[in-house]
Structures are given as structure tokens and as C-alpha cells.
Design brief:
3-stranded antiparallel sheet, two-stranded antiparallel ribbon
């Protein structure tokens, strides 16, 4: 277990590609995002991989192993206080 409270011991590698497939109008398009083979074929059985776009990602084996803010994780922005709204400026002469 890491210091943030997340378990990252069991990871698997998935293979993602960008795909050339047909959209809902039947037009041949290149996807702007990477998908697994199963997802691409589900969307279009004639889908073809775009050469040179392979991406290997290491992901947790189960969704329960993903780090969430409730698991003790603090993002860099939250730790620096960037999520706070700035206080409105009130001139001295208007302050009560």
C-alpha cells in the first residue's frame, strides 16, 4: 500500500489502438481516441487498426483498486488550494 492509501500491486497491461471505422452515417473516420480491439469491433465489425498508434497502458485489475479522493488521495491542485474561490475585492471605504 502506498502512502496515499492506494493499492497498486495488481496491475494488468491493456493494448489500445486508434481505429479507422464507419460512423453512424456510414462515413469512414479515424478515431481521435484509443480503444481496445473488443470496443472497436463492437462499434464497427469492419474496423481496422491505424498503423503506428499502438498504446500499452497499465491499469488496475479491478475498478476497486483505482485511487479516488475518498481513499486518501489529494491532487496537486487541491493540496495547493487552487480549488478555492478567490475572495471578492472590497475597497476599504466600503467595508463595514
Amino acid at each position: 500500500m502506498s502512502q496515499s492509501g492506494c493499492t497498486l500491486a495488481r496491475m494488468k497491461t491493456i493494448e489500445l489502438w486508434r481505429w479507422r471505422l464507419r460512423d453512424h452515417r456510414g462515413k469512414l473516420i479515424d478515431t481521435r481516441y484509443a480503444m481496445t480491439h473488443a470496443n472497436a469491433l463492437q462499434r464497427d465489425p469492419q474496423a481496422a487498426r491505424i498503423p503506428g498508434t499502438q498504446e500499452l497502458r497499465r491499469v488496475p485489475e479491478t475498478p476497486a483498486e483505482i485511487c479516488t479522493p475518498g481513499a486518501g488521495f489529494r491532487s496537486g491542485l487541491a493540496a495547493r488550494g487552487w480549488w478555492r474561490q478567490p475572495k471578492p475585492f472590497i475597497p476599504d471605504r466600503l467595508r463595514v
